[in-house]
Amino acid sequence: MLGEKLEEQQHQIEEDEEVLRKKSSHECPVPKPRGRIGEVLGFKKEAEEKEPRPLIETVKTPRLRKEDA
Q1: By CB atoms within 10 Å of each CB, which of 15, 37, 40, 58 scores lowest?
Q2: Nearest one of 22, 41, 16 to 30, comparing CA atoms
Q3: pTM above 0.90, yes or no
Q4: CA neighbor of 32 nearest in space, from 40, 43, 23
Q5: CB neighbours of 38 closer than 8 A, spacing ≥ 6?
Q6: Distance (Å, rounded) from C-alpha 68 to C-alpha 52?
């Protein structure tokens, strides 16, 4: 009687482990966003992570008035 219950519990544990293994072995079916949205959300390609992007700044210079020229 006790042996049967232990065998039944062991069998249930093995089935549960199998289900968990199958669930954890597949990748998420929802595709990761690409482009700017993907970058904002933190999805980056490995190549992009290694190469830093250049910083582009706009510099305004004072304009000369016609009177000063």
Answers
A1: 58
A2: 41
A3: no
A4: 43
A5: 32, 44
A6: 43
Query: How far apart, in whole angstroms, are the C-alpha atoms of residue 4 and residue 16?
Result: 18
Per-residue tokens: 43: 């999805």
What are the b/e assignments for 21-55, b being 16+ CB within 10 Å?
eeeeeeeeeeeeeeeeeeeeeeeeeeeeeeeeeee
Stretch (H or E) spanning 54:
none
Q: Which two tokens stand for residue 18?
A: 């199998």
pLDDT at 17: 87
Domain spans in the chain, listed from the N-terminal domain onward: 2-50
| DSSP string covering 15-47 | HHHHHHHHHHTSPPSSPPP-HHHHHHHT---HH
What are the φ and ψ backbone dihedral angles of 34, each rounded to 5 degrees? Answer: -110, 180
